[in-house]
Amino acid sequence: MIDLALFRDAVASEWTKLRTVRSTYWTIVVAILLGIGLGCAISAGNAHDYHSMSFHDRLEFDPTAFSTAGLFFAQLALGVFAILAMTSEYSTGTIRTTMAAIPQRGYTLAAKALLVTAISLVLAIGIAFGAFFICQQIFAHYHLAVSIHAPGVLRAVIGAALYIGGIALFATGLATIIRHTAGAITTLVALVFILPSVSQLLPHAWKVDFARYLPANAGGAITQVVYTNNDSLRPWPGFIVFMIWCVGTAAIGWYLLRTRDV
Amino acid sequence: MIEARGLTKSYGDVVAVNDLSFTVEPGTVTGFLGPNGAGKSTTMRLILGLDKPSAGSVTVNGSPYTTHHRPLTEVGALLEAKAIHGGRSAYNHLVTVAKSNHIDRKRVNEVLELVGLTSVAKKRAGKFSLGMGQRLGIATALLGDPKVLILDEPVNGLDPEGILWVRNLLKYMATQGKTIFVSSHLMSEMALTADHLIVIGRGRLIADASTAEVIRLGSGSHVRVRSPQAAQLVTLVDAHEGGATTQPDGSLSITGLTQEQVGELAAANGVVLHELTLATASLEEAFMELTEEAVDFRAPGGSIGGEGDAA
Ligand SMILES: Nc1ncnc2c1ncn2[C@@H]1O[C@H](COP(=O)(O)OP(=O)(O)OP(=O)(O)O)[C@@H](O)[C@H]1O
Ligand SMILES: [Mg+2]
Predict the structure, then answer these.
(1) Which numbered atom of ligand 1 lies nearest the CA of B43?
(2) N- or C-end of chain A: fewer Cβ atoms within 10 A?
């Protein structure tokens, strides 16, 4: 049975932990700066280039995806935020105090996962909508703006935020498995930044069989309104595949946390 | 009360704790002694359910630690000094621990006061000295006003005033009926603090008895003699079932005979003595004697006890 009172205590304790270290604040500030700043820069660049683009590129032109593209980089900052919530306990030795205080270890992981996911999600919703509306002002100068009411646009903006929430959960799982800050960050970067780029170099057949199921590729589909690329999954199936990655990684972390020595 | 039965823990090929059985009773301070690497910290992690035993079991107040709910009012522990996020203040650190067990925030101020950290409670703990970190660790252990206190080398890094304070605190808590289990590798410190000692070496139990008993077990007192006719005296001692060894300074260390017997033996045979003293082994010597076969990290060149140790 789930002990809700115990879970509330775990959440209260983890909330205090997050509130009382500086890394929480600077990772959030960096996420906002990257999310909105880079979103604007990418939007401005593409809007400016539109008139010189080929017909094919114009077909793929996606003002919604450009406006929320900064979140792709903000995910790194929020991933670090999620990772530090777990690995800082190992690097400072507080993990033993934490695990002795609540021997039911799964509760601590659940509380950490809930908080970093919820904080990241709320923040990402703010960044996604903020970036969307600011960037549409930029596109409007070039008569390229899209409305939030246009088909698929609201889904893509919310989807970009949901993706970030998933990344926070994924990062928590990785951190619980790896238990080292640098190792967990390197793994996250490799999986969501490097692997997708490398996968672009793969032959077409491999992309269909393999690359589109990678976390960032599967989860990224939901952030797009315009599809011309048949290599990727559709938005919601892609998001389900992404959630399987996130929940699966967290589940492995949960299993290891409960069975390993601290 | 802490009860270990056949407690065993291996890390790969290393058997850190080997078939330990002991009981730590309430109302007394029980010292947990052993040389470096003896398995003290490992045993404490096993008690707290942080590591899983390879065999055997250990319970705290009747049940395994991992089955306790909100255990901090039952068991308080200090495992490592400075196990704290350097960017967090001592106060906030204690609040995070208090919240996890639904302990009143007022208690945080109480324990800070108790360990003497009130004035630095709001400062980032990264700048704390080892002694301050140790005090914060003790404050964390006391937070839930637990019935059982488990402390791994609590006086490590403390100044003399701090050591005295810990000693008195532990004794006081024992009089309150609490179970106090405290590790050290300093026999002399434990002799002043503990009523009962559990001594381990290489993960195995060496002694489990009252402090006085352990000191007696370990202390091979001997008679120290200096004589210009040492060789003759050695022959005489051998003939009377005693044992004599020549020390580096030329004196003889005689066991198996009392001070009086040695004196009379010498007089009866016309052996001149320049010195005849009873050398009682110090506490540290007693400890080393007990753990001699069980020292993992012996200094090169023989005995870690330095001079004066019975060979
Ligand atoms: N997590 C671990 N992995 C591998 N070996 C370990 C681990 N923990 C302890 N050991 C080994 O187990 C043995 C006992 O170590 P432990 O830390 O329990 O000793 P100790 O009595 O606390 O020593 P000290 O007085 O130095 O603190 C040592 O040989 C140590 O190297
Ligand atoms: Mg130790």
Answers:
(1) 18
(2) N
Print the domain residue range for A167. Answer: 4-259
What is the predicted ipTM?
0.91
CA distance B90 to chain A (A): 11
Sort out which chain A residues have CB atoms less than 8 A from B66's CB and list them. 103-104
Kindly report the pTM of this predicted structure. Answer: 0.86
Return the structure tokens found at A260: 């390993």
Per the CB < 8 Å rule, is A9 touching B51?
Answer: no
- By Cβ distance, the residue of B67, B77, B88 closest to A100 is B77
Nearest CA to ligand 1 atom 11: B16
Q: Cα distance from A197 to chain B (closest Cα, Å)?
A: 36
How many domains does chain A fold into? 1
Sheet strands (E) in chain B: 2-11, 14-24, 29-33, 55-60, 75-78, 148-152, 179-184, 196-201, 204-210, 222-226, 243-246, 252-255, 275-279
Q: What angle do CA B194, B197, B203 make, to 5 degrees?
A: 135
Query: CB distance A100–B80 less than 8 Å?
Result: no
